[in-house]
Structure formats: structure tokens, C-alpha cells
Amino acid sequence: MIVALESASSDPSLALASPDGAAFAVEGWEGEGRQASELLPHLLVLLARAGRELREATALAVGIGPGSFTGLRVSMSLAKGMALALGVPLVGVPSLAAWLAAEPAASAAATRAGAQEAFLLVRGDHEPRVVAGAELAALLAGAPVAAASELAAAFGLVGARSPRRAAAAVAAMAAARLAQDPRGDELERLEPWYLRNPRGIAPSSAEVTMWP
Predict the structure, then answer these.
(1) What is the pTM of this model?
(2) Closest C-alpha among 81, 105, 76 to residue 12
């Protein structure tokens, strides 16, 4: 069983999937910045509803961002702790790519990059870019976008699709990686993909594990 966590936005999600990546239990919600207190309780409820136990996990998967600094730190810490305790592999998956996989009709995915900016990944692009929030709606020109409810309301994105099922895509993408390399990522090197430093923090030369 793969346990997947995705909390790069204010609409986090969790999924339980078979080893081939097929999700059989998914939950997403509007977290409103409370990912730190909600992820583990929601995971325990999801496991109970599915009649499964955490010790049955054969792998962990986690969205690595970019997005919410707090959300990414919390989910990464939780995923690493569970992987270490259970002795199972952990795979990091780019969050916005997973959002697009979960929403095939969306032409782009967007998440917060600060109070007035967003990370935007257009389908077909390899990496997200930072755009001004005031320009986001015009750039999308009405095209469907995967975006958290809070961001969609703040930047006027009509008809946005919440990424509340993105963890299922995280699990599927992790399963594909594990089929190629069952060891997963190195726990010591896997870090959130922030793409930019928090306000007031100088650039660092620290090496960050990226999606291949």
C-alpha cells in the first residue's frame, strides 16, 4: 500500500493506493493554513475508513512543491518520519505536475508564491514560473486551471479546479518511479522544491533533490 500526501496549497489531500498506483481511498479538504494540525488526524481517519493500518504501507509518496512553505515542510517531515519508522521507501513528486495529472481538463496549475504572486505550470512545460497574481487570470485567458480555492478567490480564477484529489496522482507517479527504482529517494537528500527562498532568507547553495 502506498500512502500519499500532498499539501503544497491550502487544499491538501491524502490517498491510499495499491502498489501499482491505483488509489482506493482519497480525501481532500480546504485546510485554510492548518495543514500542520490536520494532516495526521485526516490520515488516521482515512486509514480507518479504508479498514487499513499504517503498518501495511509499503511506500510513502509526498508532493514536493512548489507552494506553501509551511504545508511542504509539514508533509515532508511527516512523510520522512513515517518512512523511516516503517522502513519503507519514500518518493517525492512535483506537486503541480501531480495536480495536472489529477485534472486532465486543466491547461495549467497554479499555487501561491507569496502574497501577490503565484507559481504557474502550464501543461507541457517542464518547470513552473513565477507570475504576478494580478496578471494570472489574463494569462490563463479563461482556460481551466487547477488551483486551491483560496488562491482562485484571491486572484479571480473563475471555474478553477481544486487539487483535492492530487494525492491520488502523487501515488500513481510514485508507483511509476518505484517500478524503475524500488529504493525511492534518499531521505537525507529529499527536500521540498521551494523554487525561491522565504522572505528575508538569503539564497543558499544547499543541494536540493529534483524530479528527474
Answers:
(1) 0.91
(2) 76
